[in-house]
């Protein structure tokens, strides 16, 4: 049994001993409780306007692992019929007992509007809540839609935690001070179902394809993609080359650490996204994430791609196929996607062509292994991606040319020693996508989205005999740095920024079934701009499961 799967079991064994209440330790270095989860993310602003909150679902997820998703119907509130300035989704829940972290998703009208995962509980129970701005889905929300919620859980004599979940949507009416939100004209889900879980689970080498017929007067095509790894690919960034994984199969996953999310249109390469190194609440060492979760753990961000250069091929009234592939996957991945379409309001037909596509779906990945002292092996994996797509559309406003360029770099170093029990991983994914729009009449505009996903993991498994005898320790640094900019003259002006950093250290050990160590410290520092453009700086620090500092300050 690989230790990556044992970690989840260890988390459950630890969780059964934890409870809420005053911070305390029954023995030195043994946590017996932790408080409700907290994050440093900025709150979503609430417009000062008439609003209505609708409870879309209230359900207990017990032994649901093999059951269809919860399903129902979502109807716009009569007292807030729109137009709306904003729509906010709230996901809240509670759980107690012993339980794994669980992946969950919400679909409205077949479009995935939330992907999240759950915290692992304590014996006395925890509760948590998160919000997400779902304004971009207003084109679907205007009509009654089917709604589906998936949270596959296991409840039996050992794993007792039932997730008691509530889902609400709050609709904020537009008024003269809060104008109607600007959204895409149409939202087209590419999910597997409208009444069940819409994601698709892919084994290594598989892809997910959906075929749709689109409006004949397209002017813009955007896509959102969700992709998360499972099994050994839950922590794909710590995977080793196959020769080392085969040598130490109890501790290492194979396949190497390089992953990318590829999108094709009718078989043509159309875009890629570097996946974020998500860590679940039971990942690496469970005590790392109590009470502050890892980045992306509770509110998973979708990856945005601009497919407008392909619009000229999509307006012929024929079916077209969109394909998502988790390249490099060595275990299962869960993927889903949605299209966001703008159309010409003054013409029933646009026409155009794809003029450039330099993207290859076969990246050049370089792997080197350098032996060191003892059984130490230093592994270095690197890759660079540079590509361009371009196309034009003839619209009622004249010809519009769109060019998408991307540069992405990747570097992962992994010092593996002690028969695979010790790993020191440092990974950096970073890059930028620039979209240039050049109309026949008017000035060209350009936007740039840049990202930086650093993560370091120093982990050690000095003892592992079985689920009752083991010792785990780790230190993790994880960040997500995002900048959105617009070109002004010869320089880029940042209009939106996120700088989210989590640092955590934790230990967990059992001897003959008895917990002998369970402790952790973590912190999160979020700086950047809120959804109103204001500057926000929030620092949280915690030790032994409880917050020791929670500070919001002004920033420049």
TrEMBL record:
The keyword Translocase does not apply. Keywords: Signal. The keyword Signal applies. Residues 1-25 form the signal peptide. Residues 48-356 form the Peptide N-acetyl-beta-D-glucosaminyl asparaginase amidase A N-terminal domain. PANTHER family: PEPTIDE-N4-(N-ACETYL-BETA-GLUCOSAMINYL)ASPARAGINE AMIDASE A PROTEIN. This is Peptide N-acetyl-beta-D-glucosaminyl asparaginase amidase A. It comes from Streptacidiphilus jiangxiensis.
């Amino acid at each position: 049994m690989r230790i990556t799967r044992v970690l989840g079991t260890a988390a459950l064994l630890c969780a059964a001993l934890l409870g809420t209440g005053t911070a305390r330790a029954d023995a030195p270095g043994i946590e017996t409780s932790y408080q409700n989860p907290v994050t440093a993310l900025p709150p979503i602003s609430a417009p000062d306007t008439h609003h209505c909150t609708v409870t879309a679902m209230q359900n207990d997820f017990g032994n649901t692992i093999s059951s269809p998703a919860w399903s129902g119907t979502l109807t716009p509130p009569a007292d807030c019929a729109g137009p709306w300035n904003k729509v906010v989704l709230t996901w809240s829940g509670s759980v107690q007992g012993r339980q794994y972290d669980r992946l969950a998703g919400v679909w409205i009208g077949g479009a995935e509007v939330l992907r999240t995962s759950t915290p692992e509980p304590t014996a006395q129970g925890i509760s948590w809540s998160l919000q997400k701005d779902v304004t971009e889905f207003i084109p679907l929300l205007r009509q009654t839609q089917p709604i589906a919620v998936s949270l596959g859980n296991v409840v039996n004599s050992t794993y007792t935690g039932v997730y008691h979940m509530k889902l609400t949507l709050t609709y904020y009416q537009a008024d003269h001070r809060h104008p109607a939100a600007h959204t895409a004209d149409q939202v087209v889900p590419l999910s597997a179902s409208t009444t069940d879980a819409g994601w698709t689970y892919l084994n290594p080498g598989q892809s997910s394809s959906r075929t749709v017929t689109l409006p004949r007067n397209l002017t813009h095509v955007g896509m959102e993609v969700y992709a998360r790894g499972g099994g050994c690919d839950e922590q794909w960034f710590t995977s080793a080359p196959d020769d080392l994984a085969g040598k130490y199969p109890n501790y290492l996953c194979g396949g190497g650490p390089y992953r990318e999310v590829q999108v094709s249109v009718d078989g043509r390469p159309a875009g890629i996204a570097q996946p974020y190194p998500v860590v679940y609440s039971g990942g690496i060492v469970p005590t790392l994430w109590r009470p502050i979760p890892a980045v992306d753990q509770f509110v998973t961000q979708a990856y945005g791609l601009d497919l407008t250069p392909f619009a000229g091929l999509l307006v012929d009234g024929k079916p077209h196929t969109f394909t998502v592939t988790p390249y490099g996957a060595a275990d299962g991945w869960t993927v889903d996607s949605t299209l966001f379409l703008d159309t010409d309001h003054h013409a029933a037909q646009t026409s155009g062509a794809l003029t450039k596509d330099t993207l290859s779906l076969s990246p050049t990945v370089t792997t080197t292994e350098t032996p060191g002292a003892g059984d130490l092996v230093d592994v270095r994996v690197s890759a660079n991606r540079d590509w361009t797509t371009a196309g034009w559309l003839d619209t009622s406003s004249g010809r519009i040319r769109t060019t998408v360029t991307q540069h992405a770099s990747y570097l992962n170093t992994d010092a593996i020693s002690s028969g695979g029990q010790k790993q020191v991983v440092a990974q950096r994914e970073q890059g930028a996508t620039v979209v240039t729009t050049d109309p026949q009449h008017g000035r060209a505009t350009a936007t740039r989205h840049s990202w930086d996903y650093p993560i370091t993991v120093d982990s050690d498994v000095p003892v592992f005999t079985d689920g009752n005898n083991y010792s785990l320790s780790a230190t993790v640094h994880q960040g997500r740095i995002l900048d959105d900019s617009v070109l002004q003259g010869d320089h880029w002006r940042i209009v939106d920024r996120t700088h989210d950093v989590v640092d955590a250290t934790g230990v967990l050990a059992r001897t003959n079934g008895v917990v002998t160590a369970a402790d952790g410290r973590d912190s999160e520092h979020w700086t950047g701009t809120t959804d109103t453009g204001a500057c926000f700086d929030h620092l949280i620090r915690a030790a032994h499961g409880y917050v020791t500092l929670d500070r919001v300050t002004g920033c420049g």
